[in-house]
Amino acid sequence: MASSLTKDSVTPGTPGSEKTFFGHPRGLATLFMTEMWERFSYYGMRALLPLYLVAPGGLALNAGTATAIYSVYVSLVYLLAMPGGWFGDRVWGPRKTVAVAGAIIMLGHLTLALPSSGTFYAGLGLVAIGSGLLKANISTMVGHLYKGPDDPRRDGGFTVFYMGINLGAFAAPLIIGTVGESVNWHLGFALAALGMGLGLAQFLLGSRHLDAHSSVVPKPLSAEEKSSTLRKSALWAGIAVVAYAALGLSGHYTLNWVLVPLTLLGVIIPVMVLVRIKRDKDLDRADQSKMSAYIWFFVAAAIFWMIYDQGGSTLSIFADSSADNRVLGWEFPVSWYQSVNPVLIMALAPVFAWIWLALNRRGKEPSTIVKFASGLVLVGVSFFLFLAPLSIAEGGHKAAALWLVAIYFTQTVGELLLSPVGLSVTTKMAPAKYASQMMGVWFLAVTAGDATTGLLSIAGVDLNRTGIVAMEAALAVVAGVAVWMYRNKVKALMGDVR
User: Fold this and answer.
1) Which of 6, 31, 254, 269 has its CA 20 to 30 A from that of 494?
2) Which residues are in coiled coils (predicted)?
3) Is the dihedral of CA 9, 13, 15, 19 positive or negative?
4) CA distance 396 to 402
5) Average pLDDT score, the chain
């Protein structure tokens, strides 16, 4: 990392004389590397997960159960981002929360590396909890490095930081996926633990470069709040332990007793959060109107992520069983498909940024609503494309790898239209009372989408059937067209936000 740090040739002690990371505060290097290694471990394990679940040498589950487990896991990661942010704000502060989160994630991957199906689900749970704790708080610390929202380096700093996400996501399937598929599944999970270990070591060694605010608990719990929180947590934990012990002792326990409640929570909690904010009498008419508009974006995003995240489950399982995973006669591991999206993000994101700037200068940049609608339509088109390899496979042939690459490409373009806009509109439309919580609300759209996929799988719906794929594709396109048709109504509800 030293080669990336530069020292300005000015008198020591003057502003700008400190070491920097590509012109940014040195602490960004610490957070960049921590996030890169954490994403390396997360995406590496995620690329292996559905393949391990269906493999004869893995858990040998059917595709529906594997998709349900995968979807529940991903929805939990994003669901737990809200309580993770709460821990950073009220209990430990961002820096301590990230350190503890890294240790929990590493322990989770080590548990997955044990050759025992009994400990596998515990490992998944630990990784989900750690990822939820880390996700919200590490981004908060990036913001602490800059002097308020008007610091001209701030946007560039977050851009550099998000490059770390995509570098980790790109490398992980190529390394962890190859070892897991070709050598040993559990060795692949152990590599994910090593990646998180490197990230945690980087964080602890470089934490001296972070802003002092990252150690501060912004709104510490009072003694009364702490006591109440512990009582409620102990009560719910006790109820869960008694209920599952009773199920186990009576011989009625099955995996669905865990999957069904978690998927239902993934759908119910996002609805409850939106209803609570919408019905808050402290919000004035303008904020109420903006929240009404935001619900349109939220529902559209949930539909988008429901289809998009099947790229790691439904598409991956299809590729494993029905695709010709070769290029120029050379066969590659199925998990490598998961590197297509991050490399396309890194290649296309600067292009999109340039296009929006060029159109903006001419007064022709599409509105937030049009971008959102376009992203939805494209994710629907990606599943219409999926119908072709499905038909080829139904005819008894292997579908070419380029079909899957084309699907991932279409989804990535849709993501670049919808995801950055969604993050931006969330911050712009957030009522002042909920400013710090609204990013967690945006993540709940992912939770709702993945939980819906999980519910469909648990209900026995075969997500690799032509009719189901066509229905999902049509749903996304219709939703995108509906958002576009009602754009003037939504625009009026948004008030002064553009």
Assistant:
1) 269
2) none
3) positive
4) 18
5) 89
Distance CA 265, CA 257 (A): 13
CB distance 326 to 60 below 8 Å: no
Q: Which stretches of the chain drop beneath a pLDDT of 50?
A: 1-17
pLDDT of residue 148: 67
Q: What's phi and psi for 260, nearest 5 deg? A: -65, -50
Residue 268 phi, psi dihedral angles, 5° rounding: -70, -45
Pairing of strands 5-7, 19-21: antiparallel
Tracing tokens 């992912």 back to the chain, one arrives at: 446
In contact, 149 and 230? CB cutoff 8 Å: no
Note the pLDDT tens digit of each residue in 394-425: 989 999 999 999 999 999 999 999 988 887 78
Region of 482 on the Ramachandran plot (φ > 0 left; ψ -120 to 50 alpha; else beta): alpha
Tokens 């948004």 identify what position?
494
Burial of 22 (0-12, 13-18, 19+ CB in 10 A): middle
Q: Which residues contact 320 (CB under 8 A, 6 or more apart)?
A: 51, 54, 334
Give, as one character, the DSSP assignment of residue 432: G
The terminus-to-terminus CA distance of the chain in angstroms comes to 40
DSSP state for residue 216 in the 8-state scheme: S
Contacts (Cβ under 8 Å, ≥6 apart) of 123: 108, 109, 110, 111, 112, 113, 114, 189
The residue type of 418 is L
- Which DSSP state fits 212? G
Residue 272 has a CB neighbour count (10 Å cut-off) of 12
In 3-state terms, the chain is what percent helix, strand and coil (to 5)?
Answer: 80, 5, 20
Task: Please report the beta strands in 242-361, taking only residues with DSSP state E, as ranges in sequence order.
Answer: 323-324, 326-327, 330-331
Residue type, 299: V
**Counts of helices then strands in the chain (DSSP H, E):** 18, 7
Question: Which domains does the chain show, CATH number per domain?
Answer: 23-217 (1.20.1250.20), 269-498 (1.20.1250.20)
Q: What is the pLDDT of residue 498?
A: 62
DSSP 72-129: HHHHHHHHTHHHHHHHHHHTS-HHHHHHHHHHHHHHHHHHHTSS-HHHHHHHHHHHHH
The pTM of this model reads 0.90
* Interatomic CA distance for residues 200 and 76, integer angstroms: 22
Pairing, β 326-327 against β 323-324: unpaired
Do 106 and 197 form a contact (C-beta atoms < 8 A)? yes
